[in-house]
Amino acid sequence: MNRLYHESEDWVAQGACRRYDPEIFFPVSTTGPGRQDADLAKAICRTCPVRQECLRWALRAGEAHGVWGATTPEERRYLRRELVPAS
Ligand code: SF4
Questions:
Q1: Domain 4Fe-4S Wbl-type spans what residues (predicted)?
Q2: Residue 47: its pLDDT value, please?
Q3: What pLDDT sits at residue 10?
């Protein structure tokens, strides 16, 4: 896992992804050939007990790669646009 955490990292150890190949969570793309891995990663995330903490972290960190909290980078960019008012 990325080491940019500035808040409690307790949730990291509880992530469901720790039982799977990390490459599933970093598909080559979220469409075309990488779509299957992205969909699998998102399905695993949906069972994860720390999904909310993970998504919150990814949004705050501006994580540009990988599936975090059942979201793709494109979905997080959309959420940031919707949640963060333009200055
Ligand atoms: S939400 Fe997904 S990426 Fe985040 S800790 Fe859970 S399984 Fe891992």
A1: 16-78
A2: 98
A3: 87
